[in-house]
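Chain A, query sequence.
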Amino acid sequence: MADGATGDAGTEEPEVNRVPVDIRSRLALALDVDDLIEAKRLAASLSPYFGTIKVGLELYLAAGPTSVGYFAEAGFDVFCDLKLHDIPNTVERAARVVGSLGARWMTCHTSGGLTMLRAAVVGLTEGAANAGMPTPGVLGVTVLTSDDTATSAELSARCDLAVDASCGGIICAAPDLEDTEPWADRLARVVPGIRLPGGDTHDQSRVASPSDALVAGADLLVIGRMVTAAEDPVAAAEELVASVLS
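Chain A, predicted structure.
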């Protein structure tokens, strides 16, 4: 997707064109909607701000694999957030399908254990290779942002599982970034539950501001309702980027 058209010589470039590439590449737009047309409209209007599109369970069930393929072909990295958790054979077969669609990332629960995680990595890698796609990565879900009961020991054990299974990264809440720092050189850290200061936390119990999460070491921020549910999503995206750059 283009980052926006260039203005005429001598005129001031619109603010939207000045979103730094290194910021855009670290922002993922969560399209948690049940309609592909609405998802496409949101992605098109917000493409200057987000380099990654998250296709979650709701959109995947509503629109099917087409939703992943569409956004991959449109030039986004696609984060397929299915949080797989089943017997290894089933997970491997499902991951193989996702890999063939051109997804950059796919989520899988680390609580499913080492064998299941390895099956996800194998399936995802083989699916992409068979379709001639770049090698994607499995993101191991450690502790959900709505879970305020998990211990540091559980988090550490799940990070170890992700590394041992050759996952490409983990999903963790912003407050867990400090505890996951020992694995930062081996696992990308993807952080949901991002809210602007004073914003609605919705059903998330462990949240952080975009700038705080990035400073703490997050590699990719998942941004959903703070932008998509806003009265003016573009204005909300501009506020988001401004908060990161300030």
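The two ends are 26 Å apart (CA to CA). The first strand starts at residue 27 and ends at 30.
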